[in-house]
Structures are given as structure tokens and as C-alpha cells.
From TrEMBL:
Coiled coil: none annotated. Keywords: Cell inner membrane, Cell membrane, Membrane, Transport. This is CmpA/NrtA family ABC transporter substrate-binding protein. InterPro entries: NrtA/CpmA_ABC-bd_dom. It comes from Bosea vestrisii.
Length: 357
């Protein structure tokens, strides 16, 4: 069998796990692939390198693939996602100082997103009345699940991101430093960076993404749209390797080994113990609160990998809330076409009942 070399970009997040496992546990090799994984420093770098074919495929924010396809954000790069890579797994974290202030202003259980939103609105109003600058929140990319989750939370408070609260883009590995320096007051990002901020003693988790939206669209395996058509064998082989990695990752006895793979210096470069706790759904909350346990905090199961065109409607609604687009029917059709549920079905059929060892 001829070996096919594929270069795949990824960002250092727990949700890159299936791409990492496809290589490190030999699933890609078994499919006849020589998988080269390249860690990137920002989502824009990753998107641009996929567009100019420095990458064959990429672990990518689903909304970023949709935005590039629509030509929003200065780049027109039609992309396609024959499969997702996870669902859920993000959180909103504030600096300890801001969280303590939020706690003092909360009227009710702060774990309730409506209660926390009202407390945030009160905080914003007090700062404005005192002549203090607005709070600054960050997400990992403008076109991201995280931006739109922040928007949904703020909407509960009658606030708008970018207006009542300043907005910055901070790549995932830089969020902890940005919070520690005071550059930002809070951020929404995928695991492990919320837990890393709490473990460093500089942040407190306010909400997990599942508090706002369960089974939330997140990362996809993105290809250039024309490559999905021209390179069906490559798409199928990599998809099959990731499906096998999914089955392996969902076995409880493999969690510790999975965390070890992800902790490597060229992957996440964080302690395996921290990553393993996240994989078990044991989340550090900070501010002397007990560990929070969330079943299926981040999903890697087979159904989580099925791309759902309906998710594109949620993404466009988030874009509209953020003032990024005024969606047209044509845009909705193009966005839905990025998420290739039919291609996923073909990849699934290709592996049949092959055992996962």
C-alpha cells in the first residue's frame, strides 16, 4: 500500500485530541497515512496556511471555516468540513478580582446564567457611573464559538460585546498571560486554558459552555472545499483514522494515556494531570470553590463528530448578534454547505464494523 503524506495544522487545545491520537496511536498509519502534525500559534495563521495549501487539512473553529467560505474577515477561502472533531468543552473565566466583584453583586445563585448576567450588568453600570473604563473580554478568534457564547451570555444582561464591553482576540495559549497581566478582565476559550488560569491562581470559572448551550458546535476537520472533491481518498483515510481515534478515546481505560499524548511539549505542553482531570469532566473553579464535575464536558463520541448543517444557522445568528454580517438566504445556504453530513456518512460506511484495538 502506498503511503500518503498529509500535513495537518492544529492549535494546542484538548479538542485537538482526535487528530493527535490518529497519529500517536497509529490509526493514521493503519490507513496508509504519514500524518505530520504542525502546532500553530493563532487561528488566523492556521486558516491562511490551509488556504494556500501549506496544510492539507486542519483542526479548525467551525465558525472560522464558515466565515472564510463566506469571505468575511478579509479572506475568501471556500472550505468544507466532512467531520467535526468535538462538541462542547469551553468555559468563561474572569480574573479573581472581577469574579469576586461579580459574586458580591449577584442576587441569587451565581451558577445560574441569568443571575450572573444581571450581576455583570450591574458591574458594567457601576463602572460607567464611576467613570471607569469598560471591562475587556477576549475570545480566541472573532469568528468562533467562544465569541458567540459570550454574546449569548451578555444578551441575557442586555449588553453587547464590543459596545458595552470591549472585545479583544487572544489566541488560546496567550489567554492566561493576558488575564494575569490585567490586559483583559475575562475570556472564553476551550479547554485547557480556563483550567490553566484557575490552576495558576489568577482566574475563576464563571460558566462552562454547557451552561449556555449543550452539544455546542465547536471544532471541525477542515479542508479546502475543492480538495474534498479532488482528493476523496485522502479525505476518507484521514476521516477513518479519526473515527477510530474517537472509539479509542471514548474508552475510560484510555483517558490517562490520552492525557499523556496531549501533554507532550509539541502538543499542549501542560501537565498530564491537569488534562486528565478535564477529560474526566473535573473542572477547577477557583475562588476556593470545590471542583465541579460535569458529565461529558467535552464530547469526542461518534455522534459528536457528525457535522450538522443546522449548526451553521446558529453560527450565522451569532455573527449577526456580533454585528459581523447581515445574513441573506444565499449566505445561509453557503454556510450550511460547509458542514458535509453526507461526506461523514461515506467515511462512516468506509470503516464498517472494523474493530478498534
Amino acid at each position: 500500500m502506498t503511503t500518503l503524506h498529509l500535513r495537518v495544522g492544529f492549535m494546542p487545545l484538548v479538542d485537538c485530541a482526535l487528530v493527535v491520537l490518529a497519529k500517536d496511536e497509529g490509526f493514521a498509519e493503519a490507513e496508509g497515512l504519514n500524518l505530520e502534525l504542525v502546532r500553530e500559534v493563532s487561528w488566523s495563521n492556521l486558516r491562511d496556511k490551509l488556504n494556500v495549501r501549506l496544510f492539507d487539512a486542519a483542526h479548525m473553529l467551525g465558525p472560522a471555516a464558515i466565515a472564510a467560505t463566506l469571505g468575511i474577515g478579509g479572506v475568501k477561502a471556500p472550505m468544507a468540513a466532512p467531520m467535526a472533531l468535538n462538541r462542547d468543552g469551553a468555559a468563561i473565566t474572569l480574573s479573581l478580582r472581577r469574579f469576586e466583584e461579580l459574586s458580591r453583586l449577584a442576587e441569587g445563585d451565581l451558577s445560574d446564567t441569568a443571575v450572573s448576567a444581571r450581576a455583570l450588568a450591574a458591574m458594567v453600570a457601576r463602572r460607567s457611573a464611576s467613570g471607569l473604563p469598560p471591562l475587556t473580554f477576549a475570545a480566541v478568534f472573532g469568528f468562533s464559538t467562544h465569541t458567540y457564547l459570550l454574546g449569548e451570555w451578555l444578551e441575557k444582561a442586555g449588553l453587547r460585546l464590543g459596545e458595552d464591553i470591549r472585545f479583544e482576540v487572544v489566541p488560546p495559549p496567550q489567554t492566561v498571560e493576558a488575564l494575569a497581566s490585567g490586559r483583559i478582565d475575562g475570556f472564553c476559550a476551550g479547554a485547557p486554558w480556563n483550567s490553566a488560569a484557575v490552576a495558576a491562581g489568577i482566574g475563576a470559572m464563571v460558566h462552562a459552555s454547557v451552561d449556555l448551550r449543550r452539544n455546542c458546535h465547536d471544532k471541525v476537520l477542515a479542508w479546502r472545499a475543492d480538495d474534498v472533491q479532488k482528493r476523496p481518498a485522502a479525505v476518507s483515510k484521514l476521516g477513518a483514522a479519526i473515527l477510530k481515534a474517537s472509539a479509542w478515546a471514548c474508552r475510560p481505560e484510555n483517558v490517562s494515556r490520552m492525557a499523556h499524548h496531549l501533554s507532550a511539549p509539541d502538543r499542549l505542553a501542560l501537565p498530564a494531570e491537569l488534562i486528565e482531570r478535564i477529560l474526566h469532566g473535573e473542572l477547577l473553579q477557583g475562588d476556593d470553590r470545590p471542583t465541579r464535575r460535569i458529565g461529558q464536558f467535552i464530547r469526542f463520541d461518534r455522534e459528536a463528530l457528525r457535522p450538522d448543517p443546522d449548526d451553521a444557522d446558529w453560527v450565522l445568528a451569532g455573527m449577526e448578534r456580533a454585528g459581523q454580517v447581515v445574513a441573506t438566504p444565499q449566505m445561509r445556504d453557503a454556510a450550511r454547505e460547509v458542514l458535509l453530513s453526507a461526506s461523514f456518512g461515506s467515511i462512516l460506511a468506509s470503516i464498517g464494523d472494523q474493530p478498534i484495538v
